[in-house]
Design brief:
The chain has 279 residues and is an alpha/beta fold. The chain is 42% helix and 23% strand.
């Protein structure tokens, strides 16, 4: 099933992460929210936490815990306390839904395209947070980037992954004067019967070399026990599946079959029905 270009890729991926990996999404949103609050509290104090500065007008004094209900469950936020006066993140706790949507969107886009200071800076501006410096934005980007990379490169330990769905999710990106990039996405059903996002890789062309490198990367991280791969009939993809997952059957996804495009099978599959992992 190819994702239609009218679908917002980051919004679609956010939904997938929230469904397949709610703990991961919740952790990333918590990290980003707390990093933003910490930076804003430092701005109120006139200096970064622990920094000696003649411009300092206040000091941090620990944290208070407050629960924040999100689509992926309740998050315990550590809200900075000040020695003099009080700090309250109005942008987060009084505009909860908007804040959550913005944070989730940044996390999902970062998972697709990588973390950038420009993307985080835009989030700060969108949320109406004042006084955060470029260096603080850079540090927040590094924190989120570490979490994104850890998730993307994690060992695949939930196997055997009996069913794997592979597709290319496209998004328009400006790069070197050219526009469209292709984002490769794989979702699997783990041993517990739950969907799991196995990997996302950005490649400039949906060709055999890109698919081969992507699937080899999944196997190196622990993808095993695959009996059936659901995909379209892209020649390079079919060959890559055969090279990296020997013995696995391949089945045309429901959407492509319904469009009556030519069906190709690999690895002994039979029948004329297509089954895809859909949200």
């Amino acid at each position: 099933m190819a994702v239609d270009n009218s679908v917002d890729p980051s919004g679609w991926l956010a939904e997938q992460i929230g469904t397949c990996e709610p703990d991961v999404l919740r952790s990333m949103v918590k990290t980003m929210a707390e990093a933003l609050m910490s930076a804003e509290a430092d701005a109120v104090c006139g200096a970064d936490y622990g920094q000696r500065s003649d411009e300092r007008v206040n000091r941090r004094n620990g944290y208070r815990v407050r629960e924040w209900d999100t689509r992926t469950g309740t998050v315990e936020l550590a809200i900075p306390k000040l020695r003099s006066g009080s700090y309250f993140p109005e942008w987060l706790l009084e505009r909860r839904r908007r804040a959550e949507q913005a944070l989730v969107s940044v996390v999902a886009t970062s998972y697709l395209l990588g973390v950038s200071t420009r993307r985080v800076d835009k989030l700060v501006e969108q949320m109406g947070i004042k006084g955060i410096s470029k260096s603080q934005v850079s540090e927040m980007s590094k924190v989120l980037d570490a979490q994104v990379q850890a998730f993307r490169n994690r060992p695949l330990e939930g196997g055997p992954y009996t069913f794997v769905w592979v597709d290319a999710l496209t998004q328009k990106v400006r790069e070197g004067g050219r526009i469209v990039n292709v984002h490769v996405l794989a979702t699997g059903v783990n041993a517990g019967g739950h969907r799991e996002i196995l990997g996302v890789e950005v490649t400039s062309a949906e060709d055999g070399a890109g698919w081969l490198a992507f699937l080899r990367g999944l196997v190196a991280r622990g993808l095993a026990g695959v009996q059936l791969v659901i995909s379209d009939a892209h020649v390079g993809l079919v060959e890559a599946i055969g090279a990296t997952l020997p013995g696995a059957g391949r089945q045309r996804c429901r959407m492509h079959w319904s469009r009556k495009e030519s069906t190709r099978w690999f690895g002994g599959g039979s029948g004329d029905r297509c089954w895809g992992l859909r949200s």
